[in-house]
Design brief:
Length: 292
């Protein structure tokens, strides 16, 4: 769906239905609180459709899964404590195998973190999300950070980090989008979402034609530390990564489909400020500026 339907929201849908509210009432209420109409409709229908029909639909959907894609990978055979990233040794701090989620220690030096933040400050603006109906970006309540985007290799520090990531995950530098930098103050968050481009959405064909094909992996790098909150949450596996300065989290999605279990989000910052840098990796050479 692209947005996480929490158990609390599921219960709310059931309770409102039992109280006599119609589907149209529920749909309007969810849209008013920031849900995309198609996602809200799918969430409501998934809960209210009779069980027998749901099972039939699920079986049909499973038979139409998108093809599995090749994804970047880390050299994790033998459970190494460190990985060679060319110009530094990167620590392996934690691994989830299904889906692939790896916490990386000392991915960036503190000096590099500070340099990226300072380079980003002059061009920071309210972050946007992708409107999959028309393949354009827009401001949305689901994402309340500020951000900016760098072209690939835009300065020496960014080029060094990009080369390090490419070596670490065995993926060509040219298959990576430029780095996006985000800043989250108290209360700011990014609600659970997928990074791939959903093949069911009308705007996906347009996005893929811009070059690079599907996104297949993400590297989130923590440039600063909030006092509390701000972790990267993976709801499908009940896992959260703390935003420790200099560390990163790498995860892949071999199908542009919820079965990849790559749903993730930025938990609200409770106290302090969080800065991150995000690097998306494509299946092919990326040559044009991405949408958010």
């Amino acid at each position: 769906m692209g947005q996480y339907v929490s158990p609390e929201l599921q219960q709310w849908i059931r309770e409102q239905t039992a109280s006599g509210y119609k589907r149209t009432d529920l749909l309007k209420a969810m849209i008013d609180t920031g849900w995309r109409e198609n996602v809200a409709a799918e969430a409501i229908d998934a809960l209210l459709t009779p069980v027998k029909r749901r099972h039939h639909t699920a079986g049909s959907a499973a038979s139409r899964l998108p093809e599995r894609l090749k994804v970047p990978s880390l050299a994790l055979d033998g459970s190494p404590l460190y990985l060679d990233a060319g110009d530094r040794q990167v620590a392996v701090l934690g691994v989830v195998k299904h889906p692939t989620i790896v916490i990386l220690g000392d991915l960036l030096s503190h000096e590099e973190c500070d340099a990226v933040i300072e380079a980003a400050r002059p061009s920071m603006a309210r972050s946007k999300v992708l409107d999959m109906d028309n393949a354009e970006s827009k401001v949305d309540s689901a994402r309340t950070s500020n951000g900016t985007y760098f072209e690939r290799g835009q300065n020496e520090v960014l080029a060094r980090i990009e080369a390090r990531i490419a070596r670490l995950v065995s993926w060509p530098v040219e298959n990576g989008e430029g780095i996006q930098v985000l800043q989250y103050g108290p209360g700011a968050e990014y609600k659970p979402h997928y990074d791939y481009f959903d093949p069911r959405e009308p705007g996906t064909a347009t996005i893929l034609k811009r070059g690079g094909g599907q996104r297949v992996a993400t590297v989130v790098m923590y440039l600063s530390e909030p006092t509390r909150g701000g972790g990267t949450l993976f709801p499908d596996v009940g896992f959260e990564v703390g935003p420790k300065k200099g560390q990163g989290v790498f995860f892949t999605y071999d199908r542009p489909h919820p079965s990849s279990r790559s749903l993730h989000g930025g938990s609200p910052v409770v106290e302090g400020e969080k800065w991150i840098a995000t690097k998306w990796l494509r299946e092919g050479e990326f040559t044009r500026r991405p949408v958010d």
